[in-house]
Amino acid sequence: MKYLALIYAAPGAGPDYGTPEFGPYMDGYRKATETYRRDGVLLGGEALQDTSTATTVRVRNGKTETMDGPFAETKEQLGGFYLFDCANLDEAIRYAAMIPSAEHGSVEIRPIMDVG
C-alpha cells in the first residue's frame, strides 16, 4: 500500500541553513533516504520551498480565486514529503519515525486512495 508522509515543522524549529548544526541535520535526511531506497519503499519525496512562496487556489461559483501563502493558520508548516510503498501502516510508521523533523515537528501519514 502507498503512504504519503507529510513533514511539518514550525519555522525555526530545526537548525538554520548555514549553521554548524545544519549539516548533521541534513545528513539525517540523507541517511533516512538511503534506507528507504535500500529497502525498496521509496516512491518519491521532495523538500518544499518556504510557505511565503505558496499560492492557494479556490474555485467559488465558477470563479478562480488565488491568495498568497497557505490557507491554514497553523504554527507548523508543510516542508516536504516522502511517498512510501509499505506492507502496512506499522511499516510506514517505522519509516516516518526516521525523518529528522519528527523530533521537533510532526509527520502525518496518509494512505493513498486507490481509485483506479
Automatic annotation (TrEMBL):
Residues 1-114 form the YCII-related domain. It comes from the Bacteria. SUPFAM superfamilies: Dimeric alpha+beta barrel (SSF54909). This is YCII-related domain-containing protein. Belongs to the YciI family.
